[in-house]
Specification:
5-stranded parallel sheet, 5 strands, globular, binds flavin-adenine dinucleotide, binds ligand DLZ
Length: about 500
């Protein structure tokens, strides 16, 4: 008897486990652009274009390879508005023995699919997602009994497991596990950042751009200048472009920000890795190969591999071990609403304007912008975790709950009480000045803290430190901050707190 195989929009690879042992002659693959998935958050228009176009290209490739594919294109009047409705209609038609799918990456949808067998009165087989290097169980086994979960130790396990950047004696290549200290140079325009890898929209992508512009007008961002890859072949070209032109400098300028460059030396590969167009291990292997042939230095290659083998796998493990309760965490008790300028970029803070504007145009901002600019501001201002999480889930082409939530709620907002990170990434304007040239072009003065034109990050930083004394004063990694705060004269402290309170009162005007 035939099986019905569901492939989701972020599972676009013929190696997906749902296809293991499938029968081209009898089984039917279902893929569907549906209202419910396109609308559960305010997805950036470019993310919608990327996914729908990549799904269409992948379905075509499957058909050319001899698979039977039922594909639903998006239309607001579609009878079937959810994946379940599409699957139910196909099941009625095919009368399959069972439904097969690969576990999805979001608790929301996972909870739904786990219940389908009741409504559909059919077995639903949910297979592990073998694209990840660690299984959910591997992560749980590693985490078991540990008082603190630290990415660095998990990352070392992953290095040992894969053998990536390990020498024949089982030692890390280059002698060190981690070259983080060599990843912090400021970029002053030299060497020039490489040209962005571009794929011009083909007819399918253009059709989807028109569809998104017609039916998703109120979604964030723009479809203008869409140049993402939408096939595995082009995504592999994007990987080759990164390895050849950006990886050699990736390590040095990993934490840099620029007033003039959106992409710097970053990979811009996360939208492809997360949707299945690129395999994470293949990406890491391509990077390590560049080191072995002397094309890129160790601080670049190790820094890059750490992000994928370490952080990416680590946050996924945290997500699945702690959901659904994790999404509800708000250990710092934040109550403030997200300022409207997160949606418009209309703020006099130059770094915030630049990060949000890049996000709006590109559905992309690099890690340090997400962590130390838009994230840092939300942390210092005490924004409600669910509002800032929803923003991050909407605005990036690579955003899926399993990776967005731990990064935002855990890493940025410290809302999980330090489960993911040992200390909050709170920083004043000085950090942004050190890592970028934004401050030179800013309305505010980064060298001032209490005056009308002082950089808001400065007073907000001390306000954060002061109001969370009970949360952090005993944290050894924060003790220096508290010593510095306690050393300040009472008048100075009062002026800083007054300035911060005024900023918070007028947050929409910043
Ligand atoms: P590079 O900087 O070139 O890094 C290489 C690769 O490493 C990325 O492609 C990505 O696959 C991986 N990576 C790097 N950092 C992380 C990380 N912290 N967690 C997981 N993977 C990582 N990444 C997402 O894929 N989706 C998200 O929704 C997402 N939300 C984020 C929200 C915040 C607040 C922060 C601080 C980080 C978030 N990240 C997210 C991680 C990271 O910022 C992006 O993966 C990265 O910016 C993608 O751009 P790139 O491909 O140029 O990455
Ligand atoms: C993100 C997304 C969007 C926008 N649209 C679809 C869709 O129409 N059909 C689909 O199968 N998947 C879509 N996705 C991805 C899912 O919403 C979900 O985020 C992932 O499948 C989780 O692994």
């Amino acid at each position: 008897m035939a099986n019905l195989i569901l492939i989701l929009g972020d599972q676009l690879t013929p190696d997906i486990s749902a296809l293991d042992d499938a029968d081209k002659q009898h089984d039917r693959i279902v893929m569907a652009e549906v209202h419910d998935e396109a609308s559960y958050t305010n997805h950036h228009k470019k993310k919608l274009v990327l996914l729908f176009s990549a799904m269409r290209h992948f379905a075509k490739q499957l058909e050319e390879d001899g698979w039977q594919v039922h594909y639903q294109r998006y239309h607001p009047d579609n009878e079937h508005r959810s994946l379940e409705a599409v699957v139910a209609a196909q099941a009625k038609d095919l009368k399959p023995e069972r439904i097969i799918t690969t576990e999805c990456g979001e608790w929301r949808l996972h909870a739904q699919i786990s219940e389908w067998h009741k409504e559909l009165d059919l077995p639903v087989e949910i297979r592990p997602d073998t694209r990840f290097i660690a299984t959910k169980q591997d992560f749980q086994d590693w985490a078991e009994g540990r008082k603190q979960l630290r990415m660095e130790y998990f990352y070392r396990e992953m290095r040992r497991k894969t053998g990536l950047l390990m020498d024949p004696d089982g030692k890390p290549e280059g002698g060190e596990w981690n070259y983080d200290a060599d990843n912090r140079r400021k970029w002053t325009g030299k060497p020039a950042a490489p040209a962005t890898f571009r794929v011009e929209p083909d007819d399918t992508t253009q059709e989807v751009i028109d569809l998104v512009n017609e039916h998703f007008t109120d979604h964030f961002g723009t479809t203008d200048n869409f140049h993402f890859a939408v096939t595995a072949e082009d995504a592999n070209q994007a990987l080759a472009h990164f390895i050849d032109y950006a990886l050699p400098c990736f390590g040095d300028f990993q934490d840099a920000m620029s007033d003039h460059e959106d992409w710097l030396f970053h990979a811009i590969l996360s939208p492809y890795i997360n949707s299945g167009l690129l395999d994470p291990l293949t990406v890491c292997e391509a990077a390590t190969q560049a080191w072995y042939v002397g094309q890129a230095p160790i601080n670049a290659v190790e820094g890059f591999v750490r992000q994928i083998l370490g952080w990416r796998e680590f946050v996924r493990g945290i997500y699945w071990m702690n959901m659904p309760g994790y999404a509800e965490e708000n250990r710092l008790g934040n109550t403030r609403s997200l300022p409207w300028f997160y949606w418009t970029g209309d703020t006099k803070m130059r770094c915030m304007h630049k990060a949000i504007d890049s996000t709006r145009r590109n559905a992309y901002a690099h890690h340090i912008q997400r962590l130390m600019v838009t994230g840092n501001f939300a942390l210092l201002a005490g924004i409600k975790p669910e509002e800032i999480c929803d923003w991050y889930l909407g605005v990036y082409a690579d955003a899926y709950d399993w990776v967005e939530l731990p990064n935002v709620l855990g890493m940025v907002m410290h809302a999980d009480g330090g489960y993911l990170g040992s200390k909050p990434y709170a920083a004043s304007g000085k950090y942004i000045q050190r890592q970028s040239d934004h401050c030179a072009n800013c309305h505010y003065n980064v060298n001032k803290s209490t005056e009308e034109d002082a950089c808001p990050f400065n007073a907000l930083y001390w306000h954060f430190i002061d109001r969370h004394r009970d949360d952090f004063a005993k944290n050894p990694r924060m003790s220096m901050m508290y010593r510095n705060w306690d050393k300040q004269k009472p008048e100075r402290k009062e002026a800083l707190l007054n300035r911060a309170n005024k900023l918070l009162d007028q947050i929409e005007q910043l």
